[in-house]
Design a protein that fits this description.
Chain lengths: ~220, ~220
């Protein structure tokens, strides 16, 4: 039976519980901050149009964007074109910072997506093919609203696991992934370049993704 | 395995951005229906981003940076309203978002070409040598057995169909190459509408002719 005294105790405990909950949240937040300082800077750009925060993002990401663009054969982009496109990517970061959602992606993944889309559109810009389809039509970030929400902590845990496995990946598996992601090469193009059967390239990618604990069980081989 | 999904190869190339855009649209449409592939793809993007972060970085000139810093004040945040793709009419609401651009007012408003009593086709667009179109097979209709020259990707948008390899329902992703011969048949209970992507023929034979060829032979 609930007595006045126990009720009083429970009431007294409530603020403590709340405090503990807040503290846990804070710890998680602090954890998140430690894991993704770039995300914090992006938030500052979004909330306060903070130029210093943007400058730090620029110093970190712009050279990576330029490197990404110049990973293609030299005939695709000259150094000055690469700089122009890097500017465009970074201005998009400034323009779209408020759309960044830390529960969906790390800042790096988000910037990578912008750079990838811009590169896709510009690689094929001068090709003879018609180009009425923009990268943003294709790489739509549509997420099922009924899907379970992922907290930024869960996401960080996944990202850390991928990072750790990536650092110990056998070199031949890492090489194949790098060529596909950085050099814009299809599996077939990688196979041709390395003089390997297509099946070998595919199985290297598969082994790599298994080590990165990416579930492929629902996919066709 | 539940349902039909893209191969690992296609999903990785989509994440990397190397896939032809028309094929990429098929993946985006499939993901509208498939949470498993959405989750896999989110992770593949993280892999791409982490490989990217490892570099190598290439030094950016001071001019490049100062040019960016100096224009920041003149650049507004992109307003969220501008980003919402033109909301489609009611008729298109159930259609996957990546297709709204080409199907703004529902399937019925499209320009359908009837070229067999049971089969009509609506052309959506072409890009990088790929044709993006819709195929509609009438309920119970059976298309004569044919092969494809080159890859064909089909994503079921409405209804279902089967061939000798399986049964395909909404959201299923079917990838066939020239070695497959099939005779798709729509189920009895309703028309089947599919998104298809075909590589254009090298020779400029008509697109219809190419599909009709096996029927005329």
């Amino acid at each position: 039976m609930e007595t006045g005294a126990t009720r009083a105790m429970m009431n007294a405990c409530k603020p403590l519980e709340l405090k503990a909950k807040r503290m846990t949240e804070k710890t998680h937040e602090a954890d998140g901050t430690r894991q993704d300082p770039w995300g914090v800077l992006l938030d500052r750009v979004a909330q306060k149009r903070d130029k210093q925060a943007f400058e730090q993002l620029f110093d970190h990401f712009a050279p990576l964007v330029k490197g990404f663009l110049l990973s293609l054969p030299a005939t695709v982009f000259t150094a000055s074109m690469a700089e122009e496109l890097t500017q465009e990517v970074m201005l998009n970061v400034w323009r779209k910072a408020h759309l960044y959602d830390a529960s969906k992606a790390s800042a790096a993944t988000w910037v990578f997506t912008i750079a990838r889309n811009l590169r896709v559109d510009n690689i094929r810009k001068n090709s003879k093919h018609q180009n009425d389809v923009s990268a943003e039509d294709v790489w739509i970030e549509e997420v099922d609203p009924s899907a379970e929400p992922v907290t930024s902590l869960q996401r960080l845990t996944t990202e850390r696991a991928i990072r750790e496995s990536l650092s110990v990946l056998p070199i031949e598996q890492k090489q194949v992934l790098s060529k596909v992601f950085m050099e814009d090469k299809s599996h077939q193009a990688v196979a041709d370049e390395l003089g390997l059967p297509l099946g070998t390239v595919k199985s290297r990618v598969r082994l790599a993704l298994q080590k990165l604990r990416i579930n492929l069980s629902h996919l066709e081989l | 395995m539940k349902g039909w999904h893209p191969t690992q190869e296609l999903l990785v190339e989509y994440a990397a951005g190397t896939l032809p855009k028309a094929q990429g649209i098929c993946i985006a449409v499939h993901m509208h229906y498939c949470t498993d592939c959405q989750v896999t793809l989110e992770k593949l993007k993280v892999v791409g981003a982490q490989i990217w972060e490892e570099g190598p970085p290439v030094k950016v000139t001071d001019n490049c940076k100062s040019a960016v810093m100096s224009v920041l004040d003149s650049i507004e945040q992109e307003s969220k309203e501008n980003l919402v793709t033109a909301v489609p009419s009611e008729a298109s609401e159930t259609i996957p978002k990546p297709l709204w651009k080409w199907i703004p007012s529902g399937f019925d408003a499209l320009n359908w070409h009837l070229y067999l009593p049971i089969l009509s086709v609506a052309h959506l667009t072409e890009n990088e040598g790929y044709q993006l179109a819709l195929h509609k097979i009438k309920a119970g209709g059976k298309v004569v057995s044919h092969t494809h020259r080159g890859d064909e990707i089909t994503v079921v948008l409405k209804g279902c169909f089967s061939d000798q390899y399986g049964h395909y329902k909404e959201g299923d992703f079917v990838h066939r190459d020239g070695s497959h011969s099939h005779a798709p048949m729509a189920s009895q209970d309703g028309d089947c509408i599919c998104l298809t992507v075909l590589k254009e023929p090298v020779k400029l034979t008509s697109w219809w002719g190419r599909v009709l060829n096996p029927l005329l032979n």
